[in-house]
Design a protein that fits this description.
- This protein is of the alpha+beta class and 153 residues long.
- The chain has one domain: CheC-like (Chemotaxis protein chec).
- The protein has 3 helices and 8 strands; from the N terminus they run αββββααββββ.
- Strands 1, 2, 3, 4, 5, 6, 7 and 8 form an 8-stranded antiparallel sheet that branches.
- α1 packs across α3.
Length: 153
């Protein structure tokens, strides 16, 4: 996958979390992901398609990171995944994908987005509908790691 396709997701994640949750994130080294097992406890998944690209993006948070994002964005102190967390992960997924979409459109990609779906539970599966390679983008924050998966063809 080209850098011009991955960089918009890296930048959008950093922008959304720093702006909305006052949480700085540092991207790690991208790698190929060869299984469907999520790296977190709650994941937002969103399909993206257009004339010259199709695929999906997922953002997966461990419970403690998701709880901290909710605390920073909404002021709610939570210690379990509930409807508030799943709703917020869906919104974060939508904002990250939307930011990446805008940058990709500037690079000539025509992309539409579906509504995000949120999946929870330890070891849950993330199934991408595209046949392309799955790129795993790890991020580090002061409260823990989280992961973004991008699969575009």
């Amino acid at each position: 996958m080209k850098v011009e396709v991955i960089n918009p997701f890296l930048e959008s994640v950093a922008n959304v979390l720093s702006t909305m949750a006052m949480l700085e994130s540092t991207p790690g080294k991208p790698s190929l992901k060869n299984d469907d097992i999520a790296k977190g406890d709650v994941s937002g998944i969103i399909g993206m398609s257009g004339a010259n690209v199709a695929g999906s993006m997922a953002i997966s948070f461990p419970k403690n990171v998701a709880c901290e994002i909710v605390k920073r964005m909404l002021g709610d102190e939570l210690d379990e995944i509930n409807d508030t967390i799943t709703d917020l992960v869906g919104e974060v997924t939508n904002m990250v994908a939307g930011g990446a979409k805008n940058q990709l459109m500037e690079n000539g990609y025509d992309i539409g987005m579906a509504s995000p779906v949120v999946v929870t539970g330890e070891g849950h599966s993330i199934t991408h509908k595209a046949a392309g390679k799955r790129i795993l983008l790890p991020f580090t924050t002061e409260v823990g790691e989280f992961f973004v998966e991008v699969c575009l063809e």
